[in-house]
Design goal:
Blueprint: E1 2-4, E2 12-17, E3 26-32, E4 38-44, E5 48-52, E6 62-63, E7 69-70, E8 77-81, E9 107-113
Antiparallel strand pairs: 1-2, 2-5, 3-4, 4-9, 5-8, 6-7
Length: about 120
Amino acid sequence: MCCHRNSWATGLISNCWHSQQRMLCRPVAALSSSSSSLAMKLETTEPDLQVYSGASLDEGPRSGLGGQPYGPFPGVALEPQVWPDSINQQGFPKAVLRSGETYRHFSRYVFQSEV
């Protein structure tokens, strides 16, 4: 696996690749809370994972659920996909879906809590 962490401060880790191709569903990420017993695992068939932390959300107040104010790092988005530059790289997983073709992938988010 390779993650380019140099852009973490801006909220994006680009191109966390886990395999050379789409494959059977396998674990690619795990998150856990330091303030509770909540944990989450992500399994997917996709070869790449984009991670967004929302670090750049410091440009003024934003409110979310129940009026809760959101600032930098309010959450995280895990997005299984093909590599961002797949369309330009021979041998990378196919990133274009043509008319009449079917695209299928599987992602499972497993939440656990030890109470």
